[in-house]
Amino acid sequence: MGKQSRHPSLCAAGMNRRRFISTCGSCAALCAAMPVTGLNCSKPAEKKTLRILYSLHAVVQPRPDWPNVGFDFEPVMQHFNSSLQQAFPSFTFLPTMATGEEEAKKILTDDSAKDIDGYIVFQMNCWNRVIQTMATSGKPVLYVDFAYGGSGGFLVYNGRMIQEGLKNVGFVSSSNIEDLIGAVECFGKINSADEFAAATTQVRIKNTPQAGDLSSEPDPLSLVSARECLSRLKTSKILAIKSQESGPAESIMHIPMEWVAFSEVNAAWEKADRDESRAIAEKWQQAAQQVIDVPMDVLESSAAFYLGMKEVLKAHEANAITINCLGGFYGGHIHAYPCLGFHELCNEGLIGACECDTRSTATMVAFTTMTQGRPGYISDPVMDTARRQIIYAHCVASNKVFGPQGLENPYLIMTHSEDRQGASLRSIMPVGYLTTTLEIQPDRQEIIMHQAKAVDNDPNDRACRTKLCAEPVGDMEKLFKYWGQWGWHRVTFYGDLKEPVYDFADLIGWKVIEEA
Known about the structure:
Elements: H1 27-33, E1 49-55, H2 74-87, E2 92-98, H3 101-111, E3 118-123, H4 131-134, E4 141-145, H5 151-164, E5 169-172, H6 177-184, H7 196-207, H8 226-234, E6 238-241, E7 247-252, E8 255-259, H9 262-271, H10 274-287, H11 296-315, E9 320-323, H12 325-330, H13 339-347, E10 351-353, H14 358-370, E11 377-384, E12 389-394, E13 411-416, E14 421-427, E15 434-441, E16 446-457, E17 466-472, H15 476-479, H16 483-486, E18 490-494, H17 498-508, E19 511-514
Parallel strand pairs: 1-2, 1-3, 3-4, 4-5, 6-8, 6-9, 9-10, 16-19
Antiparallel strand pairs: 7-8, 11-12, 11-18, 12-17, 13-14, 15-16, 15-18, 16-17
């Protein structure tokens, strides 16, 4: 395959609603505190009846998921309802909840006898399928992300609707309530549902800030050639643990892979030296800025799991391990979370990867190899047009983003966010540096890529613990397009890997897609 054209890199976007609920003593006070984004605040006088649907499990979240178990959605929904009614006194809003497709279909059927002018669907939890039904209504539909709550489903489902070219569905992905109000205003300004998506797009683009200073701190890379990287990948190995089955697996991007049973990893955890585990736990505790709600026995168990993973890697002559951690823990197959162990492996130049995500694991192996040890950071991204940011969120991260010999950044040890159990980590990552975010798709032989400047770390308590905020280099609107094809996860590396990624793709005959 010939050299691919190196078009200027255009990149990411982000989303977060910290302070969205907590700053709200009253709706009037909150709206006064929010920044004005320049939208035309004259509200249409004509009357509209709009159905608001909150797509979620329950008012109080009954199980682990974003934002977290026990989360109370009632104040959030009340805030949205009262803010919209205050902004549009001539509109009638009909709020209701739906857990999924079956309830959404019943609501749509019942509404056929009512004079409903449109729908506002808030994605409050990630994967409840409500928007798909309402999109078929023929009415204008506004799709809204509740950041760090519904962001995964929002990005994936919205990406699919963008690909399908649905003209009646617009969207909002913003921490500024004025952006929501500006989009709702479009219900009163269109002549047909087919104009709705375009109208909300105009409002969103108008209210998204221009790019800031995207110059970055010096960050020299030590790279191996694409050919040497490929040679090393063929001698690497990924261990994938998703069930009690073990045996050979297909290689992924030229990297050998093997299935390993939960029982083998759990046995290694049981056999780990407890004195050594205690010493590692004490090292973590002393190095952390804070340890919040994680007792020492949990830290010691996490350290034993790290030692167990090291033994399994050694036994299989592998350098990467990825585990279906939540399935294993909730199923009683493993008895400690691997989060801190993954953190330690990544600090050492090895690979510890979440959720038995073999695509992301292979992405980490490939480009950690190319950069001679820089760790990849798997994340569940969130988009915020109000700040022109993409936020990379997960409960596992290295604190040596420049490699095992590089500088360390601060971290906190906390519970795993979704279930408030076990031990995980909030890494306060360096700002001012260029990052390159990647994901591979072996079936299509493609690598997706965007770049962004790290600008902040968000301590929001909702969803995953580490939240690296970055400003994309490129077209933020384009970034919304690809999640439906690629899924939610991305892998972020510190450094400018654009040319090395193209070189590697050219060598193996793959295509690079710049998603921004």
